[in-house]
Amino acid sequence: MISRRDFLYRAAAVGGTGLMLNTMSAWGMGIESTMSAPPVLGGSGKGKKVVILGAGLAGMTAAFELGKLGYQCQVLEARAFAGGRCQTARKGFALTELGGEEQRCSFDQGHYINHGPWRIPLHHQSTLHYTRLFEVPLEVMVNDNDHSIVYLENGGPLARQRLRPAQIKADMRGHVAELLAKSVKSKQIDQALTEQDQRLLLDYLAHEGQLDAGDLRYKGRSGRGYAVNPGAGMMPGAGKESDPLGFKELLESKVGNIYSAVQDFPMQNTMFQPVGGMDQIAKAFEKRIGKNIRYRAEVQTIRHGEKHVAVTYKDTASGKFTTVNADYCLCTIPLSVLRMIDTDFSPKFKAAIKQVAYAPVGKIGLQMKRRFWEEDDQIYGGHVLTDIKGINTISLPSSSWQKQKGVLLGYYNYQTSAIEVSAMTPGERAEFAVAAGEKIFPAYRESFESAFSVAWHRVQYNLGGWADWNDESRKHAYPVLLEGEGRVLLAGEHLSYLTGWQAGAIESAWQQLAKIHERASA
């Protein structure tokens, strides 16, 4: 007989922390993230008022959950609609970027582009909690398709060829396997390869295997999953990486007979999307708490005292200023915008807000009158990957299979590329995307009908796609912002390790509303 403690030591020695955590979970001792449902809170919030700044997913999550506890929630939203970045452009949707002209989507009825978030991983159970609760129908989003296309402008002997991912995976692994097999057999790898070949091979192996840059050892990768998934706050925060299986054990298991490629952790091969557009999630929230939302309410000032919070907003339709008083404030405004609002936060808190950069991000939807990718190339969903500057990814729709028309994502660019492309007019962006796409698909230009684009760093109430933390700001600013200032707490994707994902906004709201309830109940 051995104790549970001894058994766990042995489990960790044999299978790493992953096996140990699974064993603990089987015994009911698991320490995995509990962010699959909102916190279970007792007591009542009746008689208490919370003003919530922003009707994105974080703000509406908080209003929904606090409302169930009896809190009076007033949500102030600067836009004329709810959802924040959870947006879908369909016929009639209008957007005017800072310094730009108005765009009005002219896609045919039933067609759309998710120009904000556009996919839900299976392990984002917080997002799926609400799609299930609100009965938002989902469909599969094909996130990886071996039959799609990889197109390299600068691919040397393979430049400007339409390559299938399946070819690349099979051939590269086959060639590497051949080289390594010959080296094991002959023990003369240094004679089989020139010095340049060895450098190129080591470079490929380092990237393909995600090897340590120093000693070229494989120490695991996010695509294999986490022991504790990343999430909001400090717990689970960045999460806990899982330990890789031993090479000897893998060889003996003959797992190579059924081996397939891994992805980065969030990028599962199969993901989900709401039927009819990602904004169906926002609309489902709005249906339930919309009566608490004041639209076109642009926050001007935030003041907090020992016993209350005062927020002044401007009605952008009438120009009238109004002050809302509340017991607590939950601010979900992006930090890129919050830093420009007049507040009485401490210098330390203001400095923390300013430390966080936001990512320039751009997308464009292109309506095609013929689904040539399906008809000509038999590609059903997935992404076309390319090194064409400013394009990065072309994504093919995972809905309305075999219909006549379809809307594809013409580019998804970041950082410098996003800034450069965003300087173009909407018409120039469309031409840029079409000119690139026709290098890959001959029918691209003749099939193109209309476009809708967004540069999130030029959208007034966002000023960026998502919070772009670095190690320094995570270390110093993140804990300060998590704590809040007096009776003001912050929430949003920026207050999580799931930046850029809807789950980050939802789970952050769960954590922060629990803090509000704890303080209000004290």
In short:
By secondary structure, the protein is α/β, with parallel strands linked by helices. It is built from 16 helices and 26 strands. A hairpin with a 6-residue loop joins strand 21 and strand 22 (393-396).
Walk me through the structure:
This protein has 522 residues and is α/β, with parallel strands linked by helices. The protein has 16 helices and 26 strands. The strands form nine sheets. A five-stranded parallel sheet has the order 13-2-1-17-26. A hairpin with a 4-residue loop joins strand 14 (297-304) and strand 15 (309-315). Helix 10 crosses helix 15. The longest helix has 23 residues, at 4-26.
**Helix tally?**
16
Sheet bearing the most strands, described? 5 strands, parallel
User: What Rg is obtained from the alpha carbons, in whole angstroms?
Assistant: 25 Å
Strand order of the largest sheet: 13-2-1-17-26
What topology does this entry show?
Blueprint: H1 4-26, E1 49-53, H2 57-68, E2 72-76, E3 89-90, E4 94-96, E5 102-104, E6 112-113, H3 125-133, E7 138-142, E8 150-151, E9 162-163, H4 165-186, H5 189-192, H6 195-208, E10 226-228, E11 240-241, H7 247-253, E12 270-274, H8 279-289, E13 293-294, E14 297-304, E15 309-315, E16 321-326, E17 328-331, H9 335-338, E18 342-343, H10 347-354, E19 357-358, E20 361-368, H11 372-375, E21 382-386, E22 393-396, E23 406-414, H12 415-422, H13 426-437, H14 444-447, E24 448-455, E25 467-468, H15 471-483, E26 488-490, H16 502-521
Helix pairs in contact: 2-8, 2-16, 10-15
